[in-house]
Amino acid sequence: MKHMQRKLLVALFLIIINVLPFSTVFAGTQKFWGIDVSKNNGTVDWNSVFSSGYRFAMIKTGDGKDTGDSSDIDSQFEMNYTNAKEAGLFCGVYHMVADNTPEDAEKEANYCLSILDGRPLDQQTTATCKIVVKKAPTSIRFVENNKTIKQKTLKKGQSYSVKTALSNNSASQYLSYYSSNKKVASISSSGKLLAKKAGTTTITVKTYNGKTATLKVTVKK
Prior knowledge:
Elements: H1 2-12, E1 16-19, E2 22-27, E3 30-37, H2 46-51, E4 54-63, H3 77-87, E5 90-96, H4 102-116, E6 129-132, E7 140-144, E8 147-148, E9 151-155, E10 159-161, E11 163-166, E12 175-179, E13 185-187, E14 192-195, E15 199-207, E16 212-220
Parallel strand pairs: 3-4, 4-5, 9-16
Antiparallel strand pairs: 1-6, 2-3, 7-8, 7-11, 10-14, 12-15, 13-14, 15-16
Helix pairs in contact: 1-4
């Protein structure tokens, strides 16, 4: 089972996988409906899901390969897996990746398996996937309303989610954010700024292959 899972995961993880909101599986003449879920769906009432006629779930494990940052693991994975199984659904998983080499893809597959931590997958579970392959980015920039921005002014206590744009037809496995002065404004791994006190700081975003952009942030009282 584990060897079969590993081969399947490595094959799938050579590319970025976007799982559709719901999928259909045909078994003989029977048709089963399923859903895919992640932390973005919040806390799922799996008994209600089963009562609504869904019979399988594709559950997100996380993103990328093991960087030592626990935020790469989907925070709802364990709860979703446990509660979906208890409600009677067949369970499969998916993992978001973007790699250029088979070696890196295998690392991400192994990371997915480590998150699974021996939890069995139901072999009956399959899903239709939309597959998008993109090249590595050559540039990145901060944007607002589809326009490039170099600076941003916030009030103390205000939060702001930064948005970025990559070079055309490219993708980044992950983005890293840094603040030059965390006492003035901090930024989370997902790009959410929090203005803490009056002053200025420089926010830097970095792609997996080293492309960067900066944003000057001014915090006022």
